[in-house]
């Protein structure tokens, strides 16, 4: 029983962290940027310039 609770808790942590990551075409990094620095699964943080990085689909 305790094992199931632990697995559920770990799953919830993973889901929460993925939800705080950014969606496609939203800022994810850059000078003076103070938000989440990760993108949703299937996306990566692409550099536009030193001040603006945004989440882009993998393969583009």
TrEMBL record:
> Record keywords: Membrane included?
no
The residues covered by the CBM1 domain are 20-56
In terms of InterPro entries, this protein maps to: CBD, CBD_sf
KW Oxidoreductase (keyword) present: no
| Signal peptide annotation | 1-18
- Name the GO terms of the biological process aspect: carbohydrate metabolic process
Q: Name one Pfam family in it.
A: CBM_1
Which protein are we looking at? Answer: CBM1 domain-containing protein
Natural source organism: Anaeromyces robustus
């Amino acid at each position: 029983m305790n094992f199931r609770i632990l697995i559920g808790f770990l799953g919830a942590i993973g889901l929460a962290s993925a939800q705080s990551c950014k969606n496609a075409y939203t800022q994810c990094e850059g000078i003076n940027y103070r938000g989440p620095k990760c993108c949703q699964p299937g996306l990566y943080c692409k550099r536009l310039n030193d001040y603006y990085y945004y989440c882009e689909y993998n393969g583009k």
